[in-house]
């Protein structure tokens, strides 16, 4: 299980770890955005006796692929990185997932540290040891489980994010509450505007990290309980992948919000979720997240992506809510009802 620490601008704990002298070289993987906005903070804080080497990629989900992995591996090889090298992944979920995967596979595994810079990565993607890249139009089709040496969270990086990125990450906060903490759900429903300076991001991040860590500790390889973390993601991943084929792709959390509305509807139809709970969920999510319409929605393509979800095993399986704060997994749902959930999504926004 990964160890998560919260850091200030000084990155004291990270400095202590780096200066133990246990690694022969230190590399920082980032994209163009984090190089400009976040790396200066990290570079100023790090007090290393030897320099750090940079690997910079273009920003965007479209670069989370094998080609980028080859560039990372080749750069490490060219720089003579040995099995005692250390890779710092400074960025959002794309950098964390892909950097961790490259580290876990380079020379059969080198140490890596996650330094998430987006809300999405801080509350979800950097915790739990899931690594991977997109392949063949399928999100995270290639990957592995491998824990980082440490994860360091600095909420100050959130100041660099536009509200849309904060909103994307906040979808995972909502999900964590819906699957496992009804009390905190009632608290976060008071959040309406995500760039409100009164929001205590440290408390929100710590809550999500604690909740997810407890689930992952019980089921590190997603054989059972950990599957509840997929609420909103079965439909969400398919919708997200479809959006990549348009001129206006969805961010991950926006797709998850779409998926949570649909899967809350399925929870009422398949399990015991009450009408009142369904309305609470959909009213709040539709207030925070705008309607998303696909101009050319292909049912065949949608189900192709849905059937390719790595969680399926001859059935389309969902993690669904029995009630707010309690989630079941491995619930089979048939295609006609899934289509009903998409129509329900439209109806929530009056479309």
Write the layout of secondary structure elements.
Layout: E1 4-6, H1 12-18, E2 25-31, H2 32-37, H3 39-45, E3 53-57, H4 66-78, E4 85-91, H5 93-105, E5 111-116, H6 119-125, E6 130-135, E7 138-145, E8 150-153, H7 163-180, H8 182-188, H9 201-218, H10 233-243, H11 252-270, H12 275-288, H13 299-307, E9 317-323, E10 326-332, H14 335-348
Parallel strand pairs: 1-8, 2-3, 2-4, 4-5, 5-8
Antiparallel strand pairs: 6-7, 9-10
Helix pairs in contact: 4-5, 6-7, 6-9, 7-8, 7-9, 7-11, 10-11, 10-13, 11-12, 11-14
Keywords:
17% strand; 351 residues; six-stranded parallel beta sheet; two-stranded antiparallel sheet; 2 domains; Dehydroquinate synthase-like, alpha domain; alpha/beta; 14 helices; 10 strands
Describe the structure concisely:
This protein has helices at residues 12-18, 32-37, 39-45, 66-78, 93-105, 119-125, 163-180, 182-188, 201-218, 233-243, 252-270, 275-288, 299-307, 335-348; strands at 4-6, 25-31, 53-57, 85-91, 111-116, 130-135, 138-145, 150-153, 317-323, 326-332.
Give an overview in words:
The structure is a single chain. The protein has helices spanning 12-18, 32-37, 39-45, 66-78, 93-105, 119-125, 163-180, 182-188, 201-218, 233-243, 252-270, 275-288, 299-307, 335-348, and strands at 4-6, 25-31, 53-57, 85-91, 111-116, 130-135, 138-145, 150-153, 317-323, 326-332. It has 14 helices and 10 strands. It is globular, with a radius of gyration of 20 Å. The protein has 351 residues and is α/β, with parallel strands linked by helices. Helix 11 (252-270) packs across helix 14. The protein has 2 domains: 4-159, Rossmann fold; 163-348, Up-down Bundle (Dehydroquinate synthase-like, alpha domain). Strand 6 (130-135) and strand 7 form a beta hairpin. 46% of the residues lie in helices and 17% in strands. The termini are far apart. The strands form 3 sheets. Strands 1-8-5-4-2-3 form a 6-stranded parallel beta sheet, sandwiched between helices. A two-stranded antiparallel ribbon has the order 6-7.
